[in-house]
Amino acid sequence: MLPTVLQAFYHRFIDICEQFTAKNNWMLRLALVLPFTVLLFAFPSYERLATEFAESWRAVLAQAAHPFTPGRHEPTSHQAKMAFRLTVPLVARMLHLGVVGILLLQAVAGAVLFYLSAKLFLRLTGDKTAALLLTLSLSFIYAGRVSFTEIRGIFDGVAMLFLVVSMSFSNPLLVFTGVFLAAWTDERGLIATSLVMLFWVHSAQSALRKAVNPTTVAVFLAWAAYFVTRYLVARTFGLSTPTQGVGIRLLIDQTNNLPVGVWSALEGCWLLVLSSLLVLWRHKQLVFSAAYVGSISLLLLVAMSVVDITRSMAYLLPTFFLATMIVAKSETQNTFRKVVFVAMLLSFAYPAYYTGGDYYINWTYPLPLQLFRYAFGSGT
User: Fold this and answer.
1) DSSP states of 105-157 as a string?
2) Could you read off the pLDDT of 48-58 as tens digits, one per residue?
3) What is the 3-state secondary structure (H, E, C) of 49-75?
């Protein structure tokens, strides 16, 4: 009985998806609707902007006003780690944005992320329905919702957008720009671009082009440009990033949160990553598999070595697109849709939990529950 019900639900859902993707500008419609869907299931507590997050925003606005002036912050604090995360503060300075303006900029970045992701998923799969399912899956995981739920003056959503830009276009200049700006938005973005490199390596058609082609060269040049400009900025203005509060000791202390922390990176979309590893194993692509697992492991190691586990794990986002490309090429359309459908359901079913430290797990409440809190609770 249950398998029959599930099968009927699957076919009905696929029919709805096919009807939606048959409309004109369906990707634009999707990009405009998904932000509201995200907020329905994960609505941030905006009142905290004036309380516990106020200090963080003061640091952001001070950095926007004086981007290259070293700040005086507690070495273990988030604010002390912001010195080289200049992309958003510089944009805020140029556009004269305050807190509300920056939050709106972040939300726009999230909507553009959904649009570009849908286009990229369609390119990788050649299937509009699969592209829709994949984009829905993205909206249910932290990397997709962060642009709308993160209100601490942390701009991972913007970094996610630049990572997707670096995979969405084969123009070397745009690849370079995406990688370079992702790194200057957050150092985790730099590490994540190792997966962008693997994405373009696997996209190449010939053995020679896998190693050297315009897109991989663009990634290498962006890395070089980042390190050179960071060195020059550090030497010229005396900027630095303290290393207190991160490292192996913290990783050991946070082992308690390892399972849920790793899960929070991609949630149900890990199913695609595992499927892609099986495909690579079947095709004996052992060297690429080793690089793939190595890049994932490096990001997992870094994420567990800092307090903000979930937001660091989210930088595995390029893995989602790389895994999609690998599995879509190997499986039939019907099989691939079913894998993505299960991944989407798993991601939808998992609440918007945020993991950090050795025990901290916080739930971003859905909008109905937030309204209930404001109406009948303390509102804090």
Assistant:
1) HHHHHHHHHHHHHHHHHHHHHS-HHHHHHHHHHHHHSHHHHHHHH--SS--HH
2) 998 989 999 99
3) HHCCCHHHHHHHHHHHHCCCCCCCCCC
